[in-house]
Amino acid sequence: MSAPIEDYAILSNCRTAALVSRHGSIDWLSLPRYDSPSIFAALLGEKHHGHWSLRPASLDAIPNRSYDGDTFVLVTRWETPTGVAEVHEFMPVDGGRVELVRRVVGISGEVEFRSALRLRFDYARTIPWLQQAGGEGAPALLAVAGPDAVLVRGAAYTADDHVHRTRFTVAAGQQRGLTLTWFPSHEDTPHMVDVDEMLAQTREWWQDWAARIDHDGPFQAEVVRSLLVLRALTHEDTGGVVAAATTSLPEDFGGVRNWDYRYVWLRDAALTIEALISHGFLRVTERWRQWLLRALAGDPGQMQIMYGLSGERDLVEREMTNLPGYQGAAPVRIGNAASDQYQGDVIGEVMMALEAARAAGIAESRFSWRLQVALLEQMERSLDRPDNGIWEIRGEPQKFTQSRAMIWAAFDRGARAVREFGLDGPAERWERLRDDVGAEIDAHGYDAERGHFVQYYGSTEVDASLLLLAQVGYCAHDDPRMLGTVAELERVLMHDGLLMRYRNTSGVDGLPGPEHPFLACSFWLVEQYAGSGRIEDATALMERVCALANDVGLLSEEYDTEGARQAGNTPQAFSHLALVRAADALAGHTGRAARRS
Questions:
Q1: Which of 155, 35, 36, 7 is nearest to 26 (CA)?
Q2: Contact 252, 326 (CB under 8 A)
Q3: Which of 222, 397, 510, 577 is deepest in the core (most CB within 10 A)?
Q4: What is the secondary structure of 262-306 as a DSSP string?
Q5: β-strand 51-56 against 25-30: which pairing, if any?
Q6: b (16+ CB within 10 A) / e for 99-131
């Protein structure tokens, strides 16, 4: 059975990520990209679906792990009855090769290590052809299947049925470096590299990036780790930002709410870029803008709400019946059918991120402003269309109030680009459309009798995404309508001190089964509390939610309060970027909001 979700740390090269458990088993790795087929998939099944374990032979060994400072170099210190050793694990941020390194270092005494390797390509559907490929004193195991090849060096693995095993001992001062290198199977075997040199370069790369983080407020360590996570989820070559490193980790344990998050949601990517801009990172913003131009090239009417890491559009959702799912939560899904949905808030999120880039001094290119004009024209054509909303409901489309507020924000940012930045566009028309949408929200998105905004027109339900209305400037945080909405959210959606997305028993999402509190929603409530002067409540809630991170600072999508465990895909960009915004709000920074006249 897979380890608890919070037991996993990630190793990342800003192109993909490996999930390694507290006890030294790499149970998930897709190569060469986040959205590639996996070579280890025990996370979504059992050991025979692929894993790579490395730990002391002693069952009494006790692990203690942490990242090496502000990096994704994971250091696990093992204390055993015979000695102490450390395992240093990382993925070099090197565009020339795709590599995972596990270096064992003897600290005191002697420690015997054992390792089991089960390579299973293509989501565990293919057992590769394996052969010994090393020379004298340089053991290597080569695995090949279809377009993929993997070379494992550093220890002599021998076959034992359908698993390869090895044992070795390190004494104080001794080291053993194990490497796994992926390469296209039609190419020559990559040459060996120096593990110490790769470690030094990788540590320096992450530390140099983290040193540029601009944050002068509370929760410093949490903000830094969250920004590092967002950087890890941003593809080094294409600029695409994936929503999470995994697929199909359940929102409902044993249920069907299992989705593939290894793609670029325009919303999540735009919010991530805003978070990076607000903390001093502009180069990655320019790369994302270029990614956006490539992905959306062509007819704006064909815009999707998500794409592949290079802008791929074909994200057909299918079920992998060979994988039983995380602790039996089936189905395992590859691809995502939400890519075909209309979500009315997305253009607004993109417009706000691009405005943040303008305000930070990134000049518009000839094509980037033309794209924004085309997006606003498309939004005008779709103005009265119901949508699936920010939560990607699979029930009937509605006019979700938060989506309508983001349409308001899109036209507002377009008009501001003309008025404040001197760009060419029909500002008066956009202002009229903005005001019309605002009047519509006032009339249909607010229940005057109950004193709160509603989830969608005609509903009396509330939804945590209504907290975003103040964030984007549709109303003030202390607007009586927003305060009434907060009171209703606290009454209806607070669960064991955390905020749910919505009341799923209403049937709005068209899915069976419950879910758990969505962590980003609680961070949004922190921001709302801070903006309306409830600083003590904001601080208390912030501390409560931050405490749900695992021992290396990672947050998944949701949290199961009854089981005291993380739920959903991990690490989740949405959770970490919401943490950053909440910390900024507590520090007095309110970057997004525009004042509504």
A1: 7
A2: no
A3: 577
A4: -SEEHHHHHHHHHHHHTTT--HHHHHHHHHHHHHT-S-GGG--SE
A5: antiparallel
A6: bbbbbbbbbeeebbbebbbbbbbbbbeebbebe
**Mean pLDDT, to the nearest integer, of 124-135?**
94
Q: Would you state the pLDDT for residue 505?
A: 80
| 255 phi and psi angles, rounded to 5 deg | -105, -165
**Mean pLDDT for the stretch of residues 313-342:** 96
Residue predicted with more confidence, 597 or 501: 501
Pairing mode of beta strands 558-560, 498-499 = unpaired
Cis check: omega of the bond before 397, within 30 degrees of 0 = no
Which pTM does this prediction carry? 0.96
Beta-strand ranges (E) seen in 119-153 are 129-132, 140-145, 148-153
CB 470 within 8 A of CB 528: yes
Candidate ranges 110-114, 277-281, 293-297; pick with highest mean pLDDT: 110-114
- DSSP, collapsed to helix, strand or coil, labels residue 154 as coil
* Tens of pLDDT, residues 520-563: 999 999 999 999 999 999 999 999 999 999 999 999 999 999 99
Whether residue 391 contacts residue 501, with contact meaning beta carbons closer than 8 Å, is answered with yes
The backbone region for 115, taken as left when phi is positive above 0, alpha when psi lies in -120 to 50, beta otherwise, is beta
Q: Are 268 and 243 in contact (CB under 8 A)?
A: yes
Q: Which amino acid is at 472?
A: V
CA 357 to chain centre: 21
Closest CA to 501 of 137, 150, 257: 257
CA separation for the pair 587, 580 (Å, rounded) = 11
